[in-house]
Amino acid sequence: MAYIKYKELTKYFNFNAEIDTKELPSYVTDYMKSGEKPIQAYKTSRDKGLFTNERMILFDVNPLDGSKKIHIIPYSSISSGAILFKRTSGAILLSFDSGYQLKLNFVKLDAKGKTELRKLFSYMLNNR
Fold this sequence. Notes:
By secondary structure, this protein is of the alpha+beta class. It has one domain (8-126): PH-domain like (Roll), CATH 2.30.29.50. The protein has helices at 26-29, 111-126, and strands spanning 7-8, 13-15, 17-19, 38-43, 48-52, 55-61, 68-74, 78-85, 89-96, 100-107.
C-alpha cells in the first residue's frame, strides 16, 4: 500500500470574481517579469490570483494581522492536475514536483466562467 503524505502549499482560495487584466493594481503587476503576459486574474474578498503565460502569482492576505504572502509558482513545477466542476463552481487541484498540493476554488461560475476555467486549466498543464 502506497502512502502519499499531503503537504499543503497554502490554504485554498475561493475566487469569486474575474478581474479584467487591464485593471490590475500595480502591486500585482510589479511581480511580473519583463515580457510576461497576463492571461486571467481572479479575486476573493481579500486575495488575488494572477495567471500569466509562464506562472501563477497568488496573493494570500491574512485577515487577522493584514500580512500578505505572495506565492509565485511556475507552471513547469506542476507534476499533475485535475479539474472539478459542480453546478455553480469549479476547482483546480494541482500537485507539484515538490510533493505539495494546491486547491484553487472558483465559485459563482456560469457556463462562460466554466469554459474560461477549462481553458486556463488546459493552458497551465500544456505550458509546463
